[in-house]
Amino acid sequence: MMPTMIHIYDDNASLRHSLEELLSLSDEFTVTASFDNCTKAETEVKNNPPDVILMDIDMPGMTGIEAVKKIRVFNKKVHIIMLTVFDDNNHILDAICAGASGYLLKKNVSEKLVPAIKEVLAEGASLSPSVAKMIIASMQQSAAKHEYDFTKREKEILTLLCKGNSYKMIASELNIAFETVRSYIKKIYEKLQVHSATEAVSKAINERLV
Question: Is the model's pTM score more than 0.70?
Answer without folding.
Answer: no
